[in-house]
Amino acid sequence: MSKEKIYIFDTTLRDGAQTEGVDFSIEDKNKIAKVLSDIGVDYVEGGWPGANPVDTKFFSSPPKMQQTLFTAFGMTKKTGRSADNDPGLASLMNANTPAVCVVGKSWDFHVKVALGIQKEENLENIKETAKHFVKNNKEFLFDAEHFFDGYKANPEYAIDCLKQAYDNGARWVVLCDTNGGTLPNEVREIVSKVSKIIPGNNLGIHAHNDTENAVANSLAAVESGVRHIQGTINGLGERCGNANLMSIIPNLCLKKSFSDKYEINIKKDKLSSLTECSRLLDEILNRKPNKNMAYVGASAFSHIEGTKIDDNVVVGPYARLRPGTILKSHVKIGNFVETKKSIISNKSKVNHLSYIGDTFVGKNSNIGAGTITCNYDGIRKSKTKILDNVFVGSNTSLVAPVKLESKSVVGAGSVITKNVKSKSLALTRTEQKEVKDYIRKKKNKCVELLE
To answer: What is d(CA 305, CA 289) in angstroms, rounded to the nearest whole number?
Structure first.
């Protein structure tokens, strides 16, 4: 079954630039545009030519992007001027980009109060703006500002605004939740109705994050029909921000409810570049990266990042597998176990509440609950080696560097600071039974208990 394509539109350099305290230089813009293009984003909105000297100069020497469409932003023509004689539209034409994204009013309240014109005049402005760019062979995108609020107030007029753009050649009609107040259930309901009038292959979503729903609203819109998502790196944007593409892109790639139905231009092998992209923006803005950010934050995936897990491995639900952990086949990791930079070999078991740091555990070994394999100071590397067929009792501390030879048996509560060969250390009667059972299960692979 062929998959439908979702198009990704980045507006970091335009909408993200409206964030308080953000002032991109041309060098900054070029760096960001390049990394977005390398990842495979479909559109990069470079800014608003004619609105300020930096954006105007940026468009006069645009970045080189292979598959990404460089896009200029502006507003619909003004009432009382023709499209050919409107200075704002002229700046967009002079920017020489293959695509233009124009914002226009779709809420009748704003048409009356903000623009001070008649509703019919606003419809005419949208229509003539669309015709102007389409006849000049530009890919035209219409951002319907405050669409969801406008639809709730006057659905017929809000739809009329969309149709003026679509009927006159707009490639994308983008539904904007400009104040970020719409909830996912409302997005689903409204987009479902709109997609019956304008095809989903021509609908987009632009969500703001004022209710912490921008990502959810973007995904809900896709489920309801849209095929174009606008957002920014790290959700950068005015007030509470925009939809975060660093979360949206992995969700589309990795979550089966989306990846089974849809495809995006960004391939899975490029997902790791999202972290680089996120960090680049933080570096440019002189901000400390948010370690709790989904997918790209330092704390994201702390339980599996940098790990290798073979087949038939069982891991407790609250275990934490830190970077550098390698679990071989048929390993069992108990609950609340933490591992880091360790290799746990075939058919070994690490019981609950243990910390296994910088340690090699051989085959067929049993590490008791509460075992610690690191230095007390937590600074020096452990370099502990536990060879094959070793039994370690509960609450044992192995203070580096320790080497437990094959078939060693260590009693509960032991503190080991040196190498231990094939012998038992201070086993209780209960442990002796545990070891005997362990030996029996392993078919006498462990050393018999000493008298």
So the answer is: 18
- Both 278 and 151 in one domain: the answer is yes
* 230 in the same domain as 97: yes
Query: Which pLDDT tens digit goes with each residue over 310-340?
Result: 778 888 888 888 777 888 888 899 888 888 8
Q: Which residues pair with 177 in a beta bridge?
A: 207
Listed residue (158, 154, 152) closest to 104, CA to CA: 158
Give the CATH number for residue 428: 2.160.10.10
Domain that holds residue 366: 308-441
The DSSP result for 302-341, as a single string, is TTTTT-EE-TT-EE-TT-EE-TT-EE-TT-EE-TT-EEES
Q: Residue 51, by phi and psi: left (phi above 0), alpha (psi -120 to 50) or beta?
A: alpha
Q: With DSSP H G I counted as helix, E B as strand and the rest as coil, what are the percentages for the chain, rounded to 5? A: 35, 20, 45
* Domain membership flag for residue 297: no
Total domains in the chain come to 2
Cα-Cα-Cα-Cα torsion 45, 51, 52, 57, nearest 10 degrees, comes to 60
Cα gap 449→451, rounded to integer Å: 6
Domain shared by 269 and 388, yes or no:
no
Same-domain status, 27 and 146? yes
Do the domain assignments include residue 98?
yes
Beta strand pairing call for 403-404 and 391-392: unpaired
Contacts of 296 (CB under 8 A, 6+ apart): 234, 246, 274, 275, 277, 278, 279
425 or 166, which is more confident? 166
Say which CATH number the domain at 27 has.
3.20.20.70
User: What DSSP letter does each residue of 90-148 carry, written as one string?
Assistant: HHHHHTT-SEEEEEEE--HHHIIIII-S-HHHHHHHHHHHHHHHHHTT-EEEEEEETHH
Neighbours of 314 (CB within 10 A): 12
Task: State whether 236 and 326 are in the same domain.
Answer: no
What does the block give as tokens for 372?
A: 């610690």
Whether the model pTM is above 0.90 = no
- 302, part of any domain: no
Residue 46 has pLDDT above 90, yes or no: yes
